[in-house]
Design a protein that fits this description.
Largest sheet: 5 strands, mixed
CATH topology: Glycerol-3-phosphate (1)-acyltransferase
Shape: globular
Radius of gyration: 19 Å
CATH class: Alpha Beta
Distance between the termini: 52 Å
Structural class: alpha/beta
CATH superfamily: Glycerol-3-phosphate (1)-acyltransferase
Number of strands: 9
Number of helices: 10
């Protein structure tokens, strides 16, 4: 199978001879039938938001690849054995403390929670203002239900340089259901991991790829669009306002007595993009529509 044009810019990093030197080369270590290329080009018959057949998910699952470059800290069998329990407990305990921060020490208003629901294969796409945004988005949508419905603990793609800097932080990130995304962001391994886990759960993702400096909603990247086309997830646009005041860029301690607002919009209808070719251009057009919905929520909030 020829490599899809939509993935030509997604490459793996391999070392040249010599310490520290690197070269970008096409990743040819993907199995033909388990590659993200196949997921993006194979026909899907499920409606939007449907959970694919479990046997198909198992057939398309990706085993960890041995390649040069970070894929996240290695974890042994003992960690993997107890991870479902520790992830459930650590995440819910963390979110409980953050609930106090958001709703007691700050004034947080949540609008449109009913638009999210509790279905699997749900993708929350939000603007990005602070390092705590993923907790706020998941908490506002699913807490306290996540205590007795573990699948409502969202997966969170996370920048390796922020969440995996120390062993303790890396352990917490793994138990917060973070997905390692290497520096440079065009990480095909991370994309495939998202495609693997999203149909059985929920996920929070920030299409801008970075935190805003001025409070505006920036353009979305094509990567989340590729994820949507591959999984046909139920897409919820989310707007965050006020988190820049709580935890500005460069600060480590959150502030209190601020006003925070979270708005969950209605699911985005993107059926118009399913009939066309699954290219990077199609994914970008889909993301432009999602970002337009988030900007509309932003404008409505500013007018209120």
């Amino acid at each position: 199978m020829a490599r899809s044009a939509s993935l030509r810019s997604w490459e793996c990093t391999y070392p040249k001879s010599g310490i520290g030197s690197r070269v970008m080369t096409p990743c040819r270590r993907w199995s033909r039938w388990t590659s993200a290329t196949f997921l993006l080009t194979a026909p899907l018959s499920q409606p939007l938001g449907a959970v694919p057949d479990p046997s198909r998910l198992r057939a398309l699952s990706l085993r960890p690849l041995r390649k040069t470059g970070p894929l996240g800290p290695p974890r042994g069998w003992f960690f993997r054995l107890y991870w479902p329990i520790t992830a459930w407990f650590v995440t819910n305990l963390t979110v409980t403390f953050l609930w106090v921060l958001f709703f007691v020490l700050n004034r947080t208003t949540v609008v449109g929670r009913k638009n999210v629901g509790t279905a699997r294969n749900t993708l929350l796409l939000s603007n990005h203002q602070s390092m705590l945004d993923s907790f706020l988005v998941g908490l506002g949508a699913f807490y306290p239900q996540s205590w007795w419905r573990p699948h409502l603990i969202p997966w969170n793609p996370a920048a390796a340089e922020n969440f995996y800097r120390t062993p303790i932080l890396a352990w917490l990130a793994d138990n917060w259901k973070c997905i390692w995304v290497r520096p440079g962001r065009r990480d095909l391994h991370a994309l495939h991991k998202m495609i693997e886990v999203l149909p059985a759960g929920v996920m929070t993702l920030f299409p801008e790829g970075t935190r805003t400096r001025d409070g505006s909603v920036g353009p979305g990247q094509a990567g989340p669009g590729l994820l949507i086309l591959a999984t046909r997830a139920r897409v919820i646009p989310v707007l965050i306002e006020g988190m820049r005041d709580v935890l500005p860029i460069g600060k480590a301690m959150p502030r209190v007595f601020k006003r925070i607002r979270v708005t969950y919009g209605k699911p985005v209808d993107y059926t118009e993009f399913l009939a066309g070719p699954r290219t990077r251009e199609t994914a970008q057009a889909l993301m432009d529509k999602v970002m337009a919905a988030i900007r509309a929520q932003h404008a409505e909030l500013r007018r209120a």
